[in-house]
Amino acid sequence: MATESPVVSSEGSIAVSMSNSPRLEVQTVSKQADDAASVESGYGSAPPSASASTARLPRVTLTPEHLRHLNKQLETMEPMDVLRFAKIFFPNLYQTTAFGLTGLVTIDMLSRLDREEQAAAAAKQTDKDKDDSKSDGKRHGVDLIFLDTLYHFPETYDLVERVRARYPNITLHTFRPDGFDTAAAFEAAYGRLYELSEDMYDYLAKVEPQERAYDRLEVVAVLTGRRRSQGGQRGQLDIIEVDDERGIYKINPLASWSFDQVQAYVREHDVPYNVLLDRGYKSIGDWHSTSPVGEGEDERAGRWKGREKSECGIHNKQSRYAEFLAAAAAAGPTTTDQQAGAAEVKAEASVSVV
């Protein structure tokens, strides 16, 4: 049975309520506070027509003052303490990861927290408790979400298996482009989409699978591996962000760490990592859009090199999600999704040729 906490309805205060659903849902205190929160968090409001997103917004409203207070406090804390806070504060917390170096550090830190919690629980247990719950506490506390685009490096897929072996208690949820399990099948439907339309590719391979993951798992908050030192749009990251377009919170526990700090942790704790890092790569995504970085280049300089792009869409405000749906709808009610996608790709390709 759901419990209800007090709802404070005065202007500018925080409204919190619980329901039977493990998800949370935003209760707007006032339009003014809502708009201010969007500015404070770095995200604008979703379009009024985006009913699929707004229907699942968190039922915890952080005012600008509260969000600012939380971020100020968390800024002085070590990543392990940020993770402790996140595990307590956010229900349905997941970690999104492509098994980059920062994400691997987060996995290891969470594993250490699990061991701490298990030891503390064991110390409090009576002999009867131990008999009744022999399997309790053995599970990795935060599940992982991996978006398999079908175009990761072989070294990345190998790393996934090594991580599974190192942390056998993790639960990994893998989401691929809808209806496809191999790159060959995907290309049979769309061709080399990453060459024809990056926006369409990003939507089909990353954004839509992410949306599906959030919906299916009823995600309220996610841990990310983004850091300020990665530059670009990430330079001003807060530790807690409100992504009101997707209806989730994003927590960046290692936002203040440098690449050197991350690498030092990996070495100190013998964390598995992608062998491509030993070959000049620093930020690793799909093989067709990732290259090594040169001396003195930014950490993410090897992503989409030579193009005016630094994000794939899953962290962008405008992810082309609405644009793709509009294009598919314009293709006609009897056209299949794949045919609509192919038509859009051809249209974009013809425009670029002209």
Please explain how this structure is put together.
The protein has 354 residues and is an alpha/beta fold. The protein has a domain of 230 residues: HUPs (Rossmann fold), CATH 3.40.50.620. 42% of the residues lie in helices and 7% in strands. The chain is built from 13 helices and six strands. It has a six-stranded mixed sheet. Strand 2, helix 7 and strand 3 form a beta-alpha-beta unit. Helix 4 crosses helix 5, helix 5 crosses helix 11 and helix 12 crosses helix 13. The longest helix is centred in the first third of the chain and has 24 residues. The radius of gyration is 21 Å and the shape is globular.
Write the layout of secondary structure elements.
Elements: H1 31-41, H2 51-54, H3 64-75, H4 79-89, E1 93-96, H5 101-124, H6 127-132, E2 143-147, H7 154-166, E3 172-175, H8 183-190, H9 193-196, H10 198-217, E4 221-223, E5 240-243, E6 248-251, H11 259-268, H12 321-330, H13 337-353
Parallel strand pairs: 1-2, 1-4, 2-3, 4-6
Antiparallel strand pairs: 5-6
Helix pairs in contact: 4-5, 5-11, 12-13
